[in-house]
Specification:
By secondary structure, the chain is mainly β. The chain has one domain: Immunoglobulin-like. The protein contains no helices and nine strands.
Length: about 120
């Protein structure tokens, strides 16, 4: 029997290397699901679903950085795909929408989905 899972947002955890601390902002960021009724995405257990979020590079400076890996930090959820594929390169002032396809767990869950992003560190 399938049951409802309520996704209330996205918690983005950015694992910076020593050289690029803060390049994409705080290492912990909360993204609301403003495109969903009441900010909640309702899905079924085991269902595949898509989440979107935008990551912004700083508007000044000469460094570039990359997201080298995206993982799911919430137990039970499985990562199906990430678009664009990693590495996702950012230059000064760049903004990129990241699309993550996930499979929900087979158990009931209510809360945010945690995504863990790993950076490559500055390049010139």
């Amino acid at each position: 029997m399938t049951q409802n899972i309520l996704i209330t947002g996205i918690n983005v955890q950015i694992q910076y290397t020593a050289s690029d601390q803060g390049y994409f902002g705080a290492s912990s960021q909360t993204v609301s699901l403003s495109n969903q009724p009441n900010g909640i995405l309702t899905i079924q257990t085991g269902q595949q679903f898509i989440l979107y979020f935008t990551l912004n590079a700083p508007s000044s400076g000469t460094h570039t950085d990359s997201i080298t890996q995206v993982q799911v930090g919430t137990p039970g959820f499985q990562l199906v795909s990430v678009q664009p594929q990693c590495p996702i390169d950012f230059t000064t002032g760049a903004s990129t929408q990241i699309t993550v396809t996930l499979t929900a767990p087979q158990t009931v869950y209510n809360g945010p989905v945690e995504l863990v992003l790993t950076t490559s560190g500055y390049t010139s």
